[in-house]
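Collaborator request, handled under Task 6.
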Amino acid sequence: MTIGGDGPCTEEEWRMRFRQGNPEDFLRLDWAWPRAHSRTQRLFTERMEAGTQELWVCERGACLVGELHIVWQADDPEEADGSKRAYLCAFRVQPEHQGNGIGGGLMRRALVRIREKGFREATIGVEEREPGLQNVYASWGFSTWIKTCSIDPHCLDDWGLPRASAPYRLLLQTLPEIEEEEQDPDEAVSSPPSARKKGEQ
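Structure tokens returned to the collaborator:
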């Protein structure tokens, strides 16, 4: 099976690693970044270089199969204020790899990173037409509704302007303190799907 231009993923490559990404990783995430989003990609790269945004990825062997971005400071302080609150966006798992715990692993790693940086709140957007996804985010702690938005400032159109969006809810969670013996999510691993129980993430 070929994944996003990264070559075949074999049974021996099911081991997962979550790590901080870099602008070059966008080339390996071509399944998530079509040409239509090149302006958004440039915006994200500029923010990464400026230190106001981070990319986190899930790597399986030679394949990058998931991504999640942490925005430390946004134009809208209700999303991210640069000191206490961070915003999560562009949260995607390659379709062929969904259902194997990648999304949960990325989310856990991002939330640990946010706490490591001294931030105590995290926000995320979820479309109102996706109640199932809202329930997933609620199970991860995003249970406080802040507001409903219809413009996505983190996705640019062909003119470099924020895109109109289907209405989405900006959700908040307050993060607990980091425990001293908390496991490093970078070391998280996964068994091949054949070895996992049915319905296990």
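The cover message to the collaborator said: "The radius of gyration is 17 Å. The longest strand covers residues 144-156. Please let us know whether this matches your experimental observations."
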